[in-house]
Design goal:
Blueprint (H helix, E strand, L loop, with lengths): L4 E11 L5 E13 L11 E3 L5 E3 L12 H11 L8 E5 L2 E2 L7 E7 L5 E9 L5 E6 L12 E5 L13 E7 L6 E8 L2 E14 L2 H10 L3 H18 L15 E3 L1
Parallel strand pairs: 3-4, 9-14
Antiparallel strand pairs: 1-2, 1-13, 2-5, 4-6, 5-7, 7-8, 8-9, 10-11, 11-12, 12-13
C-alpha cells in the first residue's frame, strides 16, 4: 500500500546565461497517496483542515476543492493510460496555512506498480498554473532517469520567454530520489534545476523534526524567488515582463 512520506533535501537552480546565477536551498516536501489522502492525518498535519502543517485539495487538480483522484484519473484516461494503479502526489505542504508550489509531481503507476506517467503541475507567482503530462507515446513503462521532453507552453519567469522546451528526468530508485527539470531555449541549455531528498517514514515526530529545521519553509520559497529575481536584475539579465496567467491545461509528450 502506498503510504505518505516526508522528505528532507535540497532545491538547486543554476542559470547559465547571460549571467551565471546559482543557488541551493534546503527544503522539506511530502508525498501523499492520492487514493488515500486522509491516511496522512496526524496531530500536526491535516488534509482539508487547518493545522500547523496541512494539505488542501483545492491547491491542485481542478483547483475547486473537488476530490483529486477522479481528476487525475480523467487526465490519464483521456490519453489512453491506465488509471487503476497507485498515484502519488509530491509537493510542499502548507505551513501555517500558506503554500506556494513552483512545481508538483504526480507519479502515476499501473496496477502492477510500474510507473507509466508523471504529471508536472507548474505554478507561477502571477497566479497562473499549467500541467505537462509526461509519458511514452507507445504507453510503455517509464525507465528510471529516462529523459522526457515537453515544449514550454507556460510563462514561469519574467526573465525567460515562452519558447524552447523542458527536459525532465526522474531518478526514483536512488536512496535519495531526485527530479530534474532542465530548460533549453533557441540557443541551447539555459537553466538547470532539481529537487532531491531523503525519505522519512510518516510520523508526528518526523514532521515536527522537518518543521523545526525549516519553520518558514513556504514563506521562504516565495522570498527566495523574489530575492533571486532581484539578483538577476542586478546582474543585467533582461526583464521580459509578466504574461497573463493561463488556465490549467494539459500538454502530452
Amino acid at each position: 500500500m502506498n503510504s505518505p512520506r516526508v522528505f528532507l533535501g535540497n532545491v538547486m537552480h543554476r542559470r547559465l546565461r547571460p549571467a551565471v546565477n546559482s543557488f541551493v536551498y534546503p527544503v522539506f516536501y511530502i508525498q501523499l497517496p492520492v487514493r488515500d489522502l486522509h491516511s496522512a492525518n496526524c496531530p500536526i498535519f491535516s488534509v482539508d483542515r487547518s493545522n500547523l502543517l496541512s494539505f488542501r485539495q483545492k491547491d491542485h487538480g481542478a483547483r475547486d476543492g473537488s476530490p483529486l483522484l477522479p481528476w487525475i484519473q480523467s487526465q490519464l484516461r483521456q490519453h489512453g493510460l491506465p488509471d487503476d494503479g497507485e498515484i502519488t502526489l509530491q509537493c510542499f505542504p502548507r505551513v501555517f496555512g500558506f503554500v506556494f508550489n513552483p512545481v508538483s509531481f504526480w507519479f502515476c503507476r499501473d496496477a502492477e506498480g510500474t510507473l507509466v506517467a508523471v504529471l508536472a503541475e507548474v505554478n507561477n507567482t502571477f497566479g497562473g498554473h499549467y500541467s505537462y503530462l509526461l509519458y511514452n507515446a507507445d504507453h510503455s513503462p517509464l525507465q528510471d532517469g529516462q529523459e522526457l521532453r515537453a515544449t514550454k507552453d507556460f510563462h514561469v519567469s519574467p526573465f525567460n520567454e515562452i519558447e524552447g522546451g523542458y527536459r525532465f528526468r526522474f531518478h526514483l530508485d536512488r536512496s535519495v530520489p531526485l527530479a530534474r527539470i532542465d530548460y533549453d531555449d533557441a540557443e541551447g541549455e539555459l537553466l538547470l534545476t532539481s529537487i532531491s531528498g531523503k525519505a522519512r517514514a510518516w510520523s508526528t515526530s518526523a514532521l515536527l523534526g522537518a518543521f523545526a529545521k525549516m519553520p518558514f519553509l513556504t514563506a521562504g520559497v516565495m522570498f527566495r524567488i523574489h530575492w533571486q529575481a532581484l539578483k538577476l536584475w542586478l546582474k543585467g539579465v533582461p526583464f521580459r515582463g509578466a504574461h497573463v496567467p493561463q488556465p490549467l491545461r494539459e500538454s502530452t509528450k
